[in-house]
Structure formats: structure tokens, C-alpha cells
Amino acid sequence: MTLYGGMTLSGAASKRKKASSFEHEQATAARPALLLHWYDRHRRRLPWRPLAGERADPYSVWLSEIMLQQTGVKTVGPYFEKFLTRWPDVAALGRASLDDVLRMWAGLGYYSRARNLHACAVAVLRNHGGVFPDTEEGLRTLPGIGPYTAAAIAAIAFGRRTMPVDGNIERVVSRLFAVEEPLPQAKPLIQQLATTLLGPTRAGDMKSRAGDVQSGAGDVKSRAGDSAQALMDLGSSICTPKKPACALCPLNDDCAARIRGDQEAFPRKAPKKSGELRCGAAFVVTRGDELLVRTRPEKGLLGGMTEVPGSDWLAGHDDKAALKQAPLLKGVAGWRRKAGVVTHVFTHFPLELVVYTAKVATRTGAPEGMRWVPIATLRDEALPNVMRKAIAHGLGE
Ligand code: SF4
At the N or C end, where does the chain have fewer CB atoms within 10 A? Predict the structure, then answer.
């Protein structure tokens, strides 16, 4: 069939297809500049983030990135300020004792991060003259700095052209491109797609809409850190897990998931295997106004942290077996089992603790490997949250 101008129907369809693919390419090319333009107007104010145009401090970037692993911005804020006041630079932190660092960290959870934080500060001080390496490769040689953290520091603090991909960025990118592959297998693909949001490698490659906004956003290729932080902010404030505010999103024009209308279905996730419940006992023993505690082994879960004595954590509750692991103390005729259980959820498993209490005479010595600490100074101990809960339950708070 011939239409006007001698064009066939299939010719018109093919022309429309080409036009639409051209528009799509244009929209895709515009994304990096749109993102930066949005960031310049809406960036979050965060304690570790310098004002627009100011240089980021590598120590602040590193400290905040380590604290933000598995912990939210609101919780991290006061800890970040506390650390910065006490140890204003990496050299000061490198000279601090591990015990002091663990004490300051108490309450933030995932204590291996605090141990690595200290080890990293020591390594920067001893091996790098107190100055962080400025490349991803260099940063990855340091304790506790994995691929994500290295990329984040390299991009944010040193302007290296790399894209760190955190959970927020994963969500935005998987929606923008409607990535069908489930996590975690999709991670390499998402990393690759996220990198396209850094913009072109050569100046002058930006076209059309991108060109319109580029003057406000500055040079895309030199703002890798801002691109990454823009995506992080977008994921946390607009492209939220539930009910994303797509109307406010700078990338909504060609977001594949929004066009399909199933934004919340991304990122696709493989069915989760939740860890099996573990059960154990905690023994809260008081001597006047003191509490019996011990230090956990350096390696493993909650390594080096303070705890009240307890039993092994096993598949079910077994009171008899647990009581066999109670601390051997003179004058304890029997243990009082507190009503209820203390529950806590670790990354890989949930835990239930039964709490037993006892009071001993003022001169009772501590069993080997344990010590008495005044209850009034417990806040200075490196106590993980699960132990704070067990102690509070045992002391009847
Ligand atoms: S349009 Fe909606 S789903 Fe797509 S990236 Fe923006 S906020 Fe997320």
C-alpha cells in the first residue's frame, strides 16, 4: 500500500521506529546531566557532605561510608560527629586504642566494622603517612575497604570517574532499566548500567536536553562523586522502595519501570532464605552495684565486645544444658529465670535469650576470664545491643 509521497506503510512504521529510538537515545544521553541538575537543587545536607563547590575531605567520606554500611543516616549522624570531635583526622584515629574506638562505636552494631576502621586508620598512618591513597586500587589495599567503599571514596573524595553502587543506587538503576535479572546475580549488570549515568567520557558528547541543563550542572565527567551522591539521594528521597514519587523524579521521562507501571517490582529479588532461630541463655549476676561481664573472643560474631556470661546459641531452648554453662560462683544456690525472652535479629539469624539472674555477696571473686564492672559505668563498655537488652531485662528495667 502506497501513502502520500510514495512512502509505503512499512516505510512509515520503520521511520516512526527510528524516530522513537532516536528520542530514546536522546533521553538516555540526557540522564547524567539531568541527574546533576537535580542534585544541584535538591542535595541533602549531611554532616559529612561539604557544601556545593567545596572539596570533600577523604577522612570524613571514609568514616561516614564505613558507618553507613548496614546503618541508616539518622543513626550515623551523632556517631559521626562524636568520632570527628574526638579524632579530627585519620592520624588521630590511628593513634587511638582499639578499646576506645570500640567503646565509641557501641550501639552502631556490626562491630567488625569498628575493628577494621581502627586497623585502617593505623595502616593509613603507618604506611601512607596519614594520607589516604587516591585511587580505587590503592584504597582497596586497606583493611575494611571493599570494592563499594573504595569506589565511593575514589569518586566522592578524589573525583575519580567510577560509580559506587549501594542499595539505593541498585533500586534506581534496576527500575530505570527494568532489570529482570534478580539480585544478587544482577549486581554486575547494574554496576555496568549505573556507570552509564556518569555521562560521556569526552566533553562535547552531551546533546539536546543534556546540553540545555549542562551549563547549570557543570562538567559531567569531573563530577563522578556528585553523580553517585545524586543517585543515592534520589533513591533515598524519591525512588523509595514503596510508592516512589515518580512525578518528582528527574529521570521519569524514560524510566522503563515507570512506563510499565510496576516500579515496586524492582529490583527483582531471589527468594530469601532466612536464618534459623537460635536460642541460648544469658546470666545476669550482680554483686552489690556491680555486674559480672567477660570479653568475647577477638574473632567471630561481636568479636572483642563485652557480654554477660551465657550459654551456646543452639537450635532450641534447653534449660538444663544452658544452666550447665552458668558461671561457677560461690554462694549461688539457684538461678532465677526471668519471665519472657530477649529477642534480637542478627543479619543471618534471629536469636532468643532466656535470662537467669543471681545476686552474690560483696566479696565474691569473678570466675576466670570474667570481671566485675560498676553498673553505673556500663555505658562506657563496648556492649552490643543484644547484651544491653539482656542486661536491661535481667536488672528488671
Ligand atoms: S521514575 Fe520513578 S521508578 Fe523511575 S527512577 Fe524515577 S522515581 Fe524511580
Answer: N
Q: Which residues contact 227 (CB under 8 A, 6 or more apart)?
A: 32, 35, 36, 39, 155, 163, 197, 198, 199, 220
**Nearest atom, ligand 1, residue 234 CA:** 7
Give the mutation target among 249, 259, 262 for probing the ligand 1 site: most ligand atoms within 8 A of CB: 249
Residue of 23, 113, 18 lying closest to 64 (CA atoms): 113
Question: Does 230 sit in the ligand 1 pocket, CB within 6 Å?
Answer: no
> How far from the centroid of its chain's Cα atoms is residue 91's Cα?
24
Ligand 1: nearest atom to the Cα of 244: 7
Distance CA 101, CA 120 (A): 12
Instruction: Please classify residue 78 by burial: count the beta carbons closer than 10 Å to its beta carbon, then call 0-12 exposed, 13-18 middle and 19+ buried.
Output: exposed
pLDDT of 259 strictly over 50: yes
pLDDT tens profile 192-247: 999 999 865 544 444 333 333 333 344 444 688 999 999 999 999 999 999 999 99
Q: Is the pLDDT of residue 290 over 60?
A: yes
Ligand 1: does its nearest atom lie under 6 Å from the Cβ of 229? no
3-state helix, strand, coil in the chain (%, to 5): 50, 10, 40
Is 15 a residue whose pLDDT tops 70? no
Contact between 310 and 293 (Cβ < 8 Å) = no
Q: Give the integer Cα–Cα distance in Å for 220 and 76.
A: 30
CA geometry: angle 119, 123, 126, nearest 5 deg: 135
Q: Give the model confidence (pLDDT) of 127-146 as tens digits.
A: 999 999 999 999 999 999 99
Distance CA 79, CA 103 (A): 11
Ligand 1 atom with minimal separation from the 245 CA: 7
Ligand 1 center to residue 19 CA distance, Å?
24
Q: Can you tell me the mean pLDDT for 86-100?
A: 96
